[in-house]
Structures are given as C-alpha cells and as structure tokens.
Design brief:
The complex is a heterodimer of chains A (249) and B (278). By secondary structure, chain A is α/β, with parallel strands linked by helices. In chain A, helix 3 (99-110) crosses helix 4 and helix 6 (148-160) packs parallel to helix 7. Chain A has helices at residues 43-50, 78-84, 99-110, 115-128, 132-135, 148-160, 178-190, 204-210, 228-233, 238-244; strands at 5-14, 17-27, 32-36, 60-68, 71-72, 85-88, 166-170, 196-201, 213-218, 221-227. In chain A, a hairpin with a 2-residue loop joins strand 4 (60-68) and strand 5 (71-72). Chain B has a two-stranded antiparallel sheet. Chain B is built from 11 helices and 2 strands; from the N terminus they run H-H-E-E-H-H-H-H-H-H-H-H-H. Chain B has helices spanning 5-38, 44-48, 61-92, 97-110, 114-128, 135-159, 163-171, 176-205, 208-213, 231-240, 245-273, and strands spanning 51-52, 57-58. In chain B, 75% of the residues lie in helices and 1% in strands. In chain B, helix 3 (61-92) packs antiparallel against helix 8 (176-205) and helix 10 (231-240) runs antiparallel to helix 11. Chain B is globular and about 65 Å long. The chains are: A alpha/beta (249), B mainly alpha (278). Chains A and B meet through helix 2, helix 3 and helix 6 of A and helix 7 and helix 8 of B.
C-alpha cells in the first residue's frame, strides 16, 4: 500500500541557510509517527513544508517531493491541502472568541452551514478531543479562559472539525502538565483509526509512549527511521543511540 | 551616595502621581471653567432654536446640524478608505521603499496644519470643482485631514494582531481574505476604533479647515451643497467678533459635551462588540 505521506529527497533552504538536507520519509495511514531530534534539526520546518505554511517565507528554496496520497502538495489548492493536513502548534493558540466559535471556525470557512449542523459538528469534535464534558455548559464563553491543557485540546478539536486526513502536532505538550499531556496522548491513540498523526516532540519518552514509528533528525538530516521499539532499544546509528539515551540533546 | 531603593521607589511614585494629577487638574479646570461660564445659557431654546441677530440671541440648531453632517460625512468616507489602505500596507505588501514612502507621507500629512487643508479644500472643492461653500466641500476636506490618522492607527492595530492567529486561520484552510475579515480585523477593531474616534473628535472641533470650505452661513443646510457653519466656527465668530461671550461659552460647552458623547457611545459600542472575545 502506498504511504499516506511520502517525502522524497526533500531539501529546504530559507534565507540561504540549508535547513533540511535530503530527507526521505514515509508515513503510513492510521499510524502515529514521531519526529524527534534536538532544537534546530529541522523538525518544525518539515511540518511547515508539508502544509506549505513555510511559503510565507521570503527566500525559500525547496527541492524534492512531498506527496500526499501520491500527489505533490504544491499541486493541490492550498486551502484544500490545509484542510487535509491539519497542524497543531506548540503553544495552544485559541482564536479570541468563544469555545464554540473556535471549533466552528474551520467549517464556517468552507460553507454556510445551518446552526444545528454546526452545533452537531462542534459537539462531535469536542467529544473526539475529550473536552466535551468539561466545556459543554460554557460553549459560549471565551476560549481564552480555559486552562492551557484545555486550550490545546480545543485546538485539536478545532482541527478535527475540518475532518483532516493527517494531523501534525508541533511539540503540542511542551507547555503542559503531565495530566494534560497524557490526555493529549490518549486522544491521539484513540483517534488513530480516523487520522494519521505526525508528532514532532522534544520528549523522547513521549515518542516512546505513543508512536508506531520514529524518525530521528539531526541538523536537517534524517539520521534514522524505524519502528519505535527497534529505534529505542537497538538503534542502528551511533548518533541515535546518543540522543535517545540522553548523551546528547 | 546611594539612595535606598525603598526611598527611591517613593520618590518615583510621587513624581509620577504628581504628573498624572497635573494632567487631570488642567483638564478639569478647563471643563469646569467653560461649564461655569456657559452652562446657564444652555436651554431647550438655545439647543433647538434658530440664531437671531448673528447669534447674539436665539439658538444654535443650524450649527449642530452642520457639525453632525460634516463630521459624519468625513468619517463615513475616511474610515473605509483608511482601513483599506492600512490592510493593504500591512497584509498585501512587503516592507519596501514604496511602503516607507507611503508611511512617511501619511505621517507628514497628519502633521500638516489644518488651515493648509482648508486652503487646499477651498481651491480644489470650492473653486475648482465648483461645489461652493458647502457641507460636501467641508466634509471632503476633513476626510483628507483625518485620513492619515485613521490609516496610521489602523495600521498599528493590524500589526499588533499576533501573527500566529493568522497562521491558525491559514492552517484551518482559511484564505487570506477570510483570515483578514474573520481574524485580523475583529482583533484590530478596538485600535481601529480609537483612530476613528480621534478623527471624529478632530473633525467636530475643526475650525480653520471648515470655515474655508463650508462657509459660515447661519441657515439650516437643506442639502449637501448648502453652506453651513459648524459649532466650532460659530464659537470662533461669536468670540472673535465680540457678539456674545456667554453664548460662545455655551457653544463651547456643547462642543465638549458632544465629544464626550462620541467617546462614550463609541467605547460602549466597542465593549459590546468585543465582549465575546475576552
């Protein structure tokens, strides 16, 4: 079966600095793939190349292919691509407005939906992100009043509401407490049957907890990619070993 | 000698408090002075009556009507143009020599004395476009005058909207125009409104530019092409010609009250609009 996301010989330079150097990576559908590596190894850039947020950069050079279901992402309509591939940021960023409006933002961009239809969608999305029970009585209050962990789950619900195929998360739990982190990880596991997950994380233990496969990046290079169990116990590359065992990073 | 931090802290607090107090005292002195001199002439006949004997007697109704028309005209034309320019400058151009020239031009224009705008409006609208002294010529002149203020304050407000809110919208499939309409502008609204209120205040209070372009007729204007006298001009003429000092103060008081009203209405409107966002 062809991979959901297929990256071939991807090289990216921004402002004349090479950030990704010839990356090959396949992401199978309905798996959780973690991308780990120290700061400045190109993890975030990888995500932003996939959903083309990187294109706001002025001096951008890109070679190689990024294929979504076999189609180069640059040949897809940008809004279609971004609906198919969602992105969750490191810090939860609720839009100023109510909880309801946040979740409904994406669907309302596409079509004028009837109120009951939207309400339904909002409820489903919040349930999927395991946030419904906590917020169902205050859907029409400001999202900015939620706790950090709740805000991040709200962001996940907001992404789910546009029904993407792939959800990418950029260090989504870096500012969260252990309980909120566990909730986010649970959400990923429970929704594996619906989405393909790409998780960028600084936290090796988190990668070990949730991933099916892991890719280790260092200075813009994909050093090693493999099944989580294998990569963490018997890494093939010395540098991977150093990183996962905590000797560098 | 080193001053102890706690002593220094008290000194700074005292200085800052004194400065704030000074501002408030001056403000209340001016308002109090004008109120004490002008309050007793304010009666229903003064507000809703027609002026008699050049304003020595009677009311100021025509000047109230003229002020409303001219300011509303200026705001209604200047706001969309100003906000549109600000959106263009912030969202659709990259920083370049051109945008710097535009910004410099707007700043320079904001500092031009209003009498220059008056002269410009007189030559362009009154004479060249044959509008004569009229509400329309006055309103258009004030539009030019307040436009730079609205552009620059809107620009600051739009720039202050965090970039990552735009990225959230993009990453949910939002097009640029949708992102601007649904994320950027709503979040910039308080700042934009501040600029609009500033512009409204300036146009209500303007004398030099309107006397040149709208004239000083004391009749109630029946159309946009009629000449008219604003409250500020009326105040100026009453005082300058020595017609009636107490009526001048009464008019001044009404000016202050109207500016206060504009602020109260605008801010309560803003409060209601942004309630859901907090």
């Amino acid at each position: 079966m062809a991979a959901k996301l297929s990256i071939r010989q991807l090289a990216v330079a921004v402002n004349k600095r090479l950030i990704l150097r010839g990356v090959d990576l396949d992401v199978e559908a309905n798996t959780i793939v973690s991308v780990i590596g120290p700061a400045h190894s190109g993890k975030t850039t990888l995500l932003r190349v996939i959903n083309r947020l990187i294109e706001t950069q002025r001096e951008l050079l890109r070679s190689g292919d990024v294929l979504l279901d076999g189609t180069e992402v640059r040949r897809l309509d940008i809004d279609v691509l971004r609906r198919r591939v969602g992105l969750i940021f490191a810090t939860p960023i609720p839009l100023p407005g109510t909880i309801f409006d946040n979740v409904a933002y994406g669907p309302r961009l596409k079509a004028r939906l009837r109120r009951p239809r939207i309400a339904d969608l909002v409820e489903q999305s919040l349930r999927s992100a395991a946030l419904w029970d906590e917020v169902k009585d205050r859907l029409h209050t400001s999202a900015l009043r939620l706790s950090g962990g709740q805000q991040q789950r709200l962001c996940i619900a907001r992404t789910i509401a546009v029904n993407p195929e792939v959800i990418m998360l950029d260090e989504p739990t870096s500012g969260l407490d252990p309980i909120s982190t566990a909730q986010v990880e649970n959400t990923m596991r429970e929704l594996k049957h619906r989405f393909t997950w790409v998780l960028v994380t600084n936290n090796v233990k988190q990668a070990a907890r949730v991933s099916d496969r892991v890719a280790f990046f260092l200075s813009g290079e994909l050093v090693e990619e493999g099944e989580a169990a294998q990569l963490f116990t018997t890494p093939r590359d010395k540098r991977t070993d150093d990183y996962v065992s905590g000797r560098i990073g | 000698m080193l001053v102890r931090p706690s002593v220094w802290q008290r000194v700074v607090w005292f200085l800052l408090a004194a400065m704030t107090l000074f501002t408030l005292v001056v403000l209340f002195f001016i308002i109090g002075f004008i109120t004490s001199k002008g309050a007793h002439v304010i009666t229903p006949e003064f507000l809703f009556g027609l002026p008699e004997r050049m304003g020595k007697e009677g009311g100021i109704l025509p000047t109230i009507i003229a002020t409303i028309w001219i300011s509303v005209l200026a705001i209604v034309i200047a706001t969309p143009i100003g906000v549109g320019s600000a959106v263009y400058l912030c969202e659709y151009t990259r920083e370049s020599a051109l945008t710097r020239v535009i910004r410099f031009g707007a700043d320079a224009l904001a500092g031009v004395p209003s009498i220059i705008f008056g002269l410009f409006g007189f030559i362009l609208f009154v004479v060249q476009f044959r509008m004569g002294w009229s509400l329309l010529a006055g309103g258009l002149t004030l539009t030019f005058m307040i436009l730079p203020t609205i552009i620059r304050t809107s620009e600051e407000a739009i720039r202050a909207v965090p970039y990552n809110l735009r990225e959230v919208s993009y990453s949910l499939g939002g097009a640029k125009s949708q992102t601007i309409a649904r994320v950027v502008l709503p979040n910039a609204l308080p700042g934009i409104l501040t600029g609009v209120i500033l512009g409204m205040g300036r146009s209500v209070a303007e004398t030099a530019a309107t006397i040149f372009t709208a004239g000083s007729s004391l009749l109630i204007p029946r159309s946009l092409f009629d000449p008219a006298r604003t409250m500020a001009v009326h105040f100026y003429i009453l005082a300058r010609e020595g017609l009636s000092m107490e009526r001048a103060y009464g008019t001044a008081l009404m000016l202050i009250v109207s500016i206060l009203l504009i602020n109260v209405v605008a801010y309560s409107l803003m409060f209601r609009l942004t309630k859901k966002m907090r």
